[in-house]
Hints:
This protein has 11 helices and 14 strands. It is of the alpha/beta class. It has a 6-stranded mixed beta sheet, with helices on both faces. Strands 2-1-4-5 form a 4-stranded antiparallel beta sheet. Helix 3 crosses helix 4 (106-119) and helix 4 crosses helix 5.
Amino acid sequence: MVEVKNxxxxxxxxxxxxxxxxxxxxxxxxxxLGPNGAGKSTTMNIIxxxxxxxxxxxxxxxxDIKEDARAAKRCIGYLPEIPPLxxxxxxxxxxxxxxxxxxxRRGDRKKEVEKAMVRLExxxxxxxxxxxxxxxxxxxxxxxxxxxxxxxxxxxxxxxVGLDPTQVAELRKFILELGKDHSVILSSHILGEISAVCxxxxxxxxxxxxxxDTIENLERKASGSPLLILTIEGDQDAATAVLKKISxxxxxxxxxxxDDNIYVFRLRLxxxxxxxxxxxxMVKNNINITEMxxxxxxxxxxxxxxxxxx
Length: 310
């Protein structure tokens, strides 16, 4: 669907994006992550055809964004972080205007606008001035202009910024629906949002590619020894003494006193097999284990590790 190959963007002596390569598959929701200033918005603006490259290529449905820009842009719907709205226009009026800019035939514009309004539940707002809409409805109007014409690729830059939890949940559901028949690039600082909707993620830092994979694979590859959460009922000192004698327990990170003789240990292990030895030694010393679980690395940990923030 989309191929980004050796993409580089320089502003004078400053390199915003450096030799970046990745692809977006058909009907895939691809998360695009990176710290502030990593080059995310620059990359998305280049893919959308708003910024020229210094070197490298971007092809959308086989069309080079530089050599065949008009054909490539017909395949793209773009929602920047600040939606490109005209506050003095009414919702339907604005969407018809956007349909005209996109080159949709005059006879098809009404149908396309109506379809977008229905999908975003904007039909009751068609006569409202955009300036009088809530933040949530303004974001819906921004999304509506992006999907007009049914583009194959949708680029969504921080689409949930400023929305309340209910609006975020509604928008997340809509993005999942879009992923059934569109390819979607989703940029967000809310890592839980990326985990909830994306098939794969791209992580960049300082304009360079750090990783591209499924969230499950990235979490599996995350470095660091396994972390075991062990809850016991009994004597804390006796349990600590037992754990210190087990060579596979590399560190007792923390012990929390939960009252009523209940203690929660955070343990670093050489490997997950050490759990069996811990269970055996605790039983031998008459220490009751009430709960034991491995804490898996999540997307936030992977992100911090790859971007050097940890």
